[in-house]
Amino acid sequence: MAVSNFECIQSMKVSSKAHLFFSVNGCSRDNHKKRNCLVFASAKKSDYNPVLQSKVKTLLDSVRWDDKGLAVAIAQNVDTGAILMQGFANRDALATTISSRKATFYSRSRSALWTKGETSKNFINVQDIFLDCDRDSIIYLGKPDGPTCHTGSETCYYTSVFDVLKDQQVEGNKLAMTTLYSLESTISQRKAELAASENGKPSWTKRLLLDGNLLCSKIREEADELCRTLEENEDKSRTASEMADVLYHAMVLLGLKDVKAEEVLEILRKRFSQSGIEEKKSRLSQN
User: What is the structure's pLDDT at 173?
Assistant: First the structure.
């Protein structure tokens, strides 16, 4: 997804503690309920920022809303990359999302704004917002508090077209996974098979899950081979191959310890704004 120009939402980080104070589409504070317009008020009037207000208005004007004043809005998990849901947003919904940092949409059936989680409390906490190159669709990149789908599934996308064509039953827990999470799912299945009375076919993953010493020795071995691709100036394809081995064995260890890859990625994301040197110092001081 491409985002360009100074008006991009990326360049407009808003503190979760502060709220924008502006009127959308010229609505006044007195009539915003009647005309479905929102005014964002902070606890302190001193938080009012006319420069930011102007930038937000410019941004909203730059979106290519359709003839009904809407644009497709997609919510995506910031750590796993999973597509959580798709809805529609209008100016007010996008402005509300920027202000509240909660994914907010426009309900066409109710002709009203709605914030995902306002009933279930499974909010999607927005970390960033992206517009596509044509500026007619939006991504809310965020962290969900719980299942997104009303069925209780992690995302609304759990129906594989190819499973349907094969007349296979749709499973609510089969999600549209990226490569890393497909691997995590497979490891989880192998672990479940070991706990079953009939543990299925033998596999290398099962052997590693049953032998922690073997698993740790393989992680050390693969890590060493990865380092040697640098020390011995091997081809980058070799580096990619060795890294795949490290990732696979490390993922098995995570599965054995009941640690989700998402938990690891969340920690990495939270370190983005912190110097690696300072982060290491803080860890040492805690020990």
Answer: 58
